[in-house]
Amino acid sequence: MSKKAPRAALKLHMKKNTNIRIGKNADLMxxxxxxxxxxxxxxxxxxxxFEEKSATIKxxxxxxxxxxxxxxxxx
Amino acid sequence: xxSTEDDISARVLLRRVLHTExxxxxxTRSATIVxxxxxxxxxxxxxxxxxALRHRLKKKxxxxxxxxxxxxxxxxxxxxxxxxxxxxxxxxxxxxxxTTRGLLRGIIQMETEASLLMSGQPALQASEPNPAEASMSSxxxxxxxxxxxxxxxxxxxTEPLTHVVRGLSRRKLQRAFSASAFEKQLxxxxxxxSEEKADASQDLDWSSGSKSGLxxxxxxxxxxxxIERVGLQRKVSNRRLPSVDAFxxxxxxxxxxxxxxxxxxxxxxxxxxxxxxQKFTLCLNDVTELYVQPKKDDTVGPxxxxxxxxxxxxxxxxxxxxxxxxxxxxxxxxxxxxxxSQDDDEEDVVPSSQEDVFLSPEDDIVLAPTQAMxxxxxxxxxxxxxxxxxxxxxxxxxxxxxxxQKxxxxxxDSxxxxxxVExxxxxxVExxxxxxVExxxxxxEExxxxxxEExxxxEVEEVQxxxxEExxxxEVxxxxxxxxxxxxxxxxxRITRRAHRSExxxxxxxxxxxxxxxxxxxxxxxxxxxxxxxxxxxxxDLQDFSDEEREPLxxxxxxQLHPAAELSTPEQRSQQHEASLxxxxxxxxxxxxxxxxxxxxxxxxxxxxxxxxxxxxxELPQEEEEEEEExxxxxxxSAELSMKTPAFVRQKRVFTSSIAQAMPTVLKExxxxxxxxxAKRAPRQKRQTGxxxxxxxxxxxxxxxxAKTRVASDIYPAINEIxxxxxxxxxxxxxxxxxxxxxxxxxxxxxxLLMRRQGFVxxxxxxxxxIEKYLPLEYRKLLIPVASSGNKVIPKxxx
Lengths: 75, 799
What we know:
The structure holds two protein chains of two kinds.
Chain A: H1 7-14, E1 21-22, H2 26-51, E2 56-57, H3 59-72
Chain B: H1 2-20, H2 29-41, H3 49-67, H4 74-77, H5 92-97, H6 100-116, H7 121-127, H8 129-168, H9 172-177, H10 179-198, H11 202-205, H12 210-232, H13 244-261, H14 269-285, H15 287-292, H16 302-323, H17 327-367, H18 372-386, H19 388-423, H20 425-447, H21 449-472, H22 475-484, H23 486-501, H24 503-537, H25 539-594, H26 601-614, H27 616-637, H28 639-644, H29 647-662, H30 665-670, H31 672-690, H32 696-707, E1 710-711, H33 716-740, E2 745-746, H34 748-758, H35 767-774, H36 777-783, E3 786-788, E4 792-794
Antiparallel strand pairs in B: 3-4
Helix pairs in contact in B: 1-3, 2-3, 2-6, 2-8, 3-6, 3-8, 6-10, 7-8, 7-10, 7-12, 8-10, 10-12, 13-14, 14-16, 14-17, 14-18, 14-22, 14-23, 14-26, 14-29, 16-22, 16-23, 16-25, 16-26, 17-18, 17-20, 17-25, 17-27, 17-29, 18-19, 18-20, 18-23, 18-25, 18-26, 18-27, 18-29, 19-20, 19-21, 19-23, 19-24, ...
GO biological process, one term (chain A): kinetochore assembly
GO cellular component, one term (chain A): kinetochore
Subcellular location (chain A): Chromosome, Centromere, Kinetochore; Nucleus
């Protein structure tokens, strides 16, 4: 889906704790990053949901995957 | 060594087999399985029964296999890890094929082959007959016999063995191992043996040559799969969620028990209803109580103490009566409130709208129980709550008035209201509220400005407490309060009644009272609201708190509350029906002066009821206003509560709070400024803090798109949490990268580094690819330099 990425919200998030500044298009990259991560999250959740033979992705699927994912995308 | 051992064992087994076993269908899977297991386990000659069986099977297979040009027997025997290539055995076996060992080897090899390759039937057939022939011819009858018999035996044996083996070692691989070879054997066998036995048991294995083999092979894997699948199959937990019906029933039961249990505390909507009803009853009895106890626990009120006694009696009476008609009047009450709210729009429409909604349901609930009195009172309370500014002031005034005029007014009101109230519970409540308000107004004007102010302050506090309590929906507390503050409630009731009746008068009186009250209450209200807010959080403590408050506030506040409540309510009403209020206020004032504070609850109730019924319409708007105020205030105070609690409960709270606000109307009014501000501030602040992640629509759409399957909608909060954590980490990392680069701003390259570290970007997947993949076009352009005509690159590159 090509939707509008909420750049302002992203910027807000990124600047929450720090005083560091965000470059010009860096928030776009952030958007990209988020998308990629979300994509991965969705994939993993989908797999997990399949494991339980459910066609719908439910919350516990996502939660179970999240921890592992957060660890992996640590950089 | 292994082989020799195996051979020995195999030979032994074979002998055993030959001697003991009946000719059976050709080697079955079990044989192969046995073989495999043997192989895998390196079981040289030792034999546990299973292994022995396996060995036997193997041997049989070997024998049968030996007939066919199969790979070396050694392979299968010597626990060779690769059991798979059934026919890969080197040729040295051939020599051995002639021997029993060789035969066994062949059998085993064949078996594996057969079991492994399901499709190997033709091969098997070809191989089997060949080896069989060969074996027969070469090995002689014995072999032939063996082969044939063995084959059959094997098959026969294998069947049970297969089962046995299966039990021992269910390994798909093993079984499927030499499917081809096995099948071949099977095919041969049927040719050889089918006539012999095949039919009975062998049919299972091989109905017709190849088929038998197939069957065998098919069976085991099939079984295996089934078994395996069974293991894998995990039934979703058969939780039985409680049926909705059962739940509803339980709820209703609670509701029914509610009124009698009001003190028991639940804060469910149901209990709230009940308690609210009770509260109303209390309120009805004591006007002050109404204000005091609006939903919360009604009677925080200072005036409660004094009124408590009187009201208590009333309340009980009302409560009993109220339970039945609860539903009806409540609804009506709600409507009334709505009407009032509409009218009150003039006053404080904005915030009240929400409150009204809340109030209406609450009113409905509350009204239901007692007759109009309760309804009217709570309505008035609610309305007052909504319009804090006015209500508070009015209430204060009313309280004062109530004290003086209680007896008289109530009586008068009761007369009038009785008739009407009985019919229209709503009206009563409203009237009562109005009366209260009016009374307040009257009292304020007439009695003493100073007192009013003082009262207002106290009332405000009380009201606030009450409101808080209401908001928190501590019915129990409220109920208790009510009982405790019968007097106050009674007075409140009277006041409301008066207010209802003479809305105009009340309004008139209310306004000035309100003004006066505002001054004094301003200070009182603010702390009040804080208290209220605190109350919201500490529902539990309401009871205690209210009680405590009531006590200290009690006597001194009582009169104050009343006038305050009256003031507040009348003010509210005044907005709508100044004339009516004025009228009512005047008589109320007079009455208040005369009537002792403590009246029979019944009287008060009656009066309230009457008054309520009499001037329902005018009161309604007032009440609505009050409610609105209350709502506004409640909303502000109970913003959290409302957010947390269902609308139903909220409404109840509002209702009760409105009632209580009859007292605290003054508070409201006083805090009109601060109150409204608070009301507005609270929700806004909450909203901001609560939402800080990406918009739900965007996230969900992305997720759904990526997921490609249906996604539960309640997943969003979980995703939010995850994203939040991720964001934090992301920010930290980026900052680290930037600092490392001795820069002060996070740049694109920092992100690239991040993605690389995350593994999203590798040497083979440049970032740009990702960019194109995910981002919409306009963004892509910004990120990726694109060469356009005229030797321009977009975006501008700084080289």
